[in-house]
Amino acid sequence: MLNSLIGIIASSGGVTSTNSYESIATTTVSSATASVTFSSIAASYQHLEVRFIARAAGSTRLRMQMNTDTATNYSTHLLIGDGSAAASIGAATQDKIAISAAVSGTASVFAGGVVSVLDYANTNKYKTVRTLSGIDNNGSGEVALNSGSWRNTAAVTSLTFFFDSGNIEQYSSFALYGIKG
Description:
6% of the residues lie in helices and 48% in strands. By secondary structure, it is mostly beta strands. The chain has a single domain, classed as Jelly Rolls, CATH 2.60.120. The strands form two sheets. Strands 1-12-3-8-9-10-5-6 form an eight-stranded antiparallel beta sheet, covered by helices on one side. The chain has a four-stranded antiparallel beta sheet with strand order 2-11-4-7, with no helix packed on it. The protein starts with a helix and ends with a strand. The relative contact order is 0.33.
């Protein structure tokens, strides 16, 4: 189901074939770490996409910052469902963008998702981010559709992922792709 939704999101961004994707970098966490960063991202694609599976020590959400900007230049919006209820959250003047469904601290239970950074190299507009993620914790869990913006016109040259609290745990994996126009 998640792969079907990911395909729909990818196709709505103008991607017409699998030849449009180019692998840029992949990292798998070998021991708990505070963050994962992709840096020195070339401006040779139209969009960026990060696919991840991640686990935290406790229940928390994955977050992202661009170009090491820790100022309150971000907005974030979330639509969350857990099978019995739905909720929405919106916040402006944030110091990060929400990326994932609530990640469990349960051993061997990972959240998965896809993050799209649209027009990341365009220096004439703010950057837009959209994410689809989910987690199943043996019958409980949630799915989240997130969007956000970085109110800066600079080209994105780095992406940093981290949890609100706790480390990114061992075996979490992040893969960065460039999407051609």
